[in-house]
Amino acid sequence: MALYKEQSLKLYNSISREKEIFKPINEGHIGMYVCGPTVYSNVHLGNCRTFISFDLIFRYFKHLGYKIRYVRNITDAGHLENDADSGEDRIAKKARLEQIEPMEVVQRYTVDFHNTLQKFNNLPPSIEPTATGHIVEQIETIKTIIDKGFAYEVNGSVYFDVLKFNKDHDYGKLSGRSIEDMIANTRELAAQSDKKNPQDFALWKKAEPQHIMRWPSPWSDGFPGWHLECTVMSTKYLGEQFDIHGGGMDLKFPHHECEIAQGEASTGKNPVNYWMHANMLTLNGQKMAKSTGNNILPNEIFSGENDNLSKGFSPSVARFFMLQANYRSILDFSNTALLASEKGFNRLMDAYRNSSLLPVSESSTFSVKEWKQRCYDAMNDDFNSPILIATLFEAVKFIVGVKEGNEKITAEDKELLHTTMHDFIFDVLGLLDTTVANQDNSEKLSGTVELLIKLRAEARNNKDFATSDQIRDQLLALGIQLKDGKEGTVFTLED
Ligand SMILES: [Zn+2]
């Protein structure tokens, strides 16, 4: 039986502002869309936190036995500088400054994004579609929205008519804003725009003559508005209505609000059942900003080459640090906090390794079964990773107790403890054992195998082939393969 049938999961739905019991549209299947990066610069640490949060969510659903399709887009066109409907395309601007093709910008920073997330041990999404790969679908959706009466064309650009939509829909329901407040707070002058109202947003923008990234459309040679791609690609790969839509907290308004409006306007249906938003990362108590120097890049954490750090930290320690906070809380990054996380991470990994080596007794002094359910309870409560980690540390304490002879464990409980720790540490939290002890072990292993290779060479020199074959075959049985070549013998480890 799939695990999800035994566990009742609640998640915080941003639109109802409550924790709700999660029930997917199709039993056993989940469709999840998360807004991906705009690839015009190296990925920020704050963005990494968002994607690590959704990786945790993705991993837990997979662990529970759901079939989940996780779609995360790459914005490679149409994201204008000021997040509104004017200004330059972020990617085109970077291309112009560096005098390269926009697609070179896209390629460079997409590769950086993938490499960085891989270091953090994030799983790749199931589908990673690009905005430029879905221009045809975006034009079709604009036509539909115009046909339904919720968009209008002016001078080759197409805008979504927010006030008209709001007459029988609720624009602002996700972010909790009222249209009256939006109107009262707007400072945009009507004369500066083709829009009927300042709240309207672009579905299609006519390209200025110097604009390189452009596509033909019924309205003009131009490019799609940024909010549109997510509506189009989520609909294409997950359907008109799907389970979960996620992203960073800063995308709630206007981006996600616009997505709801586009979806409801084009299909007449509410596109998303559960909205999830990951909170931001600060550095030394302040917002990260390149301009003030209060900033840190992922690679600088690994190398330690940043004035805010005393040393480098492994990606798994940085990931562990991030998972020690709930994804909905603001998390403050600091050298002190990372040093503390590293200590905790090493203790956890030590305890995990020791959990398979414990002496067993006739009875246990700790209910492993109840503890295991508490691990699930933590994750079932809106993916509460800090509570999960605290629960794992109950086991750490117990393991130390058994080692020191103060606690007892049965053989059966030992097995359950070890496998449960493995499941939660590696599969759910997505950590890798990069501790010094593990590196020491790999050094010890290679030293030992080198010694055996030497003894085998001596045996062969002495024509003692029985011994040399025995060394080779027994190593192979352990998953260590020897290969003889001109440069001598090398070995490889099978997984
Ligand atoms: Zn999006």
Topology readout:
Elements: E1 10-13, E2 18-21, E3 29-34, H1 45-63, E4 67-72, H2 90-98, H3 102-119, H4 135-147, E5 151-154, E6 157-160, H5 162-168, H6 179-185, E7 201-206, E8 222-224, H7 226-238, E9 242-248, H8 252-267, E10 272-278, E11 281-283, E12 286-287, H9 298-303, H10 315-323, E13 331-333, H11 335-355, H12 368-380, H13 385-403, H14 411-428, H15 436-461, H16 465-477, E14 480-485, E15 488-493
Parallel strand pairs: 3-4, 3-9, 9-10, 11-13
Antiparallel strand pairs: 1-2, 5-6, 6-7, 7-8, 11-12, 14-15
Helix pairs in contact: 2-3, 4-7, 7-8, 10-11, 11-13, 12-13, 12-14, 15-16
The structure holds zinc ion.
Strand content: 5-15%
Distance between the termini: 28 Å
Mean pLDDT: 92
The CATH topology name of the largest domain reads: Rossmann fold
How does the overall form come out from the CA principal axes? globular
CATH architecture of the largest domain: 3-Layer(aba) Sandwich
The CATH class label of the largest domain is Alpha Beta
- Overall number of domains: 3
Question: What is the strand tally?
Answer: 15
> What do we call the CATH homologous superfamily of the largest domain?
HUPs
Structural class: alpha/beta
Subcellular location: Cytoplasm
Family: Belongs to the class-I aminoacyl-tRNA synthetase family.
Subunit structure: Monomer.
InterPro entries: Cys-tRNA-ligase, Cys-tRNA-synt_Ia_DALR, Cys-tRNA/MSH_ligase, CysS_C, Rossmann-like_a/b/a_fold, tRNA-synt_1_cat_dom, tRNAsynth_Ia_anticodon-bd
